[in-house]
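Working notes for the structural subgroup meeting. M.R. asked for a predicted model of this chain before we commit to crystallization trials. I am recording the input and output together here so anyone reviewing the notebook later can reproduce the run.

Input as submitted:
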Amino acid sequence: MQSLETYVINLDGSNDRLDAISARLAAFGIAFERIPAVDGRPLDLSTVADYDEAHAERYMGRGLVGGEIGCYHSHLKVATRFLQSDAHYALVLEDDALPLCNPVELLEKALGDLDATDPDWLLINVGNSKLKIATPLSGYEVGGHRCELVAAHYFPMTTSAVVWSREGARLFVEQHRKIFAPVDNYFRHWLTRTGHGYSFTPPPVTTTEAASQILASAGRGRKTNKRKWYYGLAKQYRLMQDKLIAWRQKRRFRPRAG
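Returned structure, recorded in C-alpha cell form:
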C-alpha cells in the first residue's frame, strides 16, 4: 500500500487524553504525529473572518459556538499538514478515538480495493455510529473485527476518525471559504452532494465517550446555544434534502470493476 500517515488532534494541556490515545495506538504498533487542536472556546466569533453567522443561522437554525469553530479549524489544520507530506493517505484521529481493531491494518487491506472501485474517492468515515443510505462493497476482517466498506451516499456524522485521500484533503482546504456548519455537518453537506464519500460498518473505531474538549464552550454548548424560532424546521429541511440527494446518488452509483 502507498504511504499512510496517522495524525492525532489533541488540545494543548490535554495530557491524559494524549497518553490514553498514545497507549491505544502503541498496542497496534501505530506511530502518529500530534496536531495541536485549535482552541475555539475563548474566541469572540465576531472577529473570526471565515465564520458566516448569517449562513449558519439559515442552514443550521442556530449560530455556532467557539468550540465548533475550533474543531473545524483543527481539521483544516491537519488536512493542510497532510498535504505538506509525501503521504498518499491520512488517518486522522481525535484524541477520544477508540480503535476496535488495528485501523492501519484494515486500511492496508481496503484502500487498494477502494482505489480500484473509485479512484476519485475523497474521504472515509471510519468512526461513524449510524449509517444510512449506503451501497455495500467489500468485507474485511482484522483482529476478529469484521466490517464492510460501503459507499456512504448519506455521509455519516462524527469526525473522531476519518481517512483522507490527497485529492479530498486538497479540495477541503482549497475550497474553504466560510464556515456555516460544524465540520461533521459540512462533510455530510459536501460529500452527499459530490459523492466519493465512504465508510465502514460496523465502525472499526468508536470513541471513549469522553466529553470533547475542543467542542466545549465557556457557558455556551451546542445544546444551550440560543436557537432561532425556526431551528426545528431548518433541521428537518436539511435532513430531508440531504436524504433525497443521497437516494439519487445511490441509484446512480456504479462501482468500477476491480
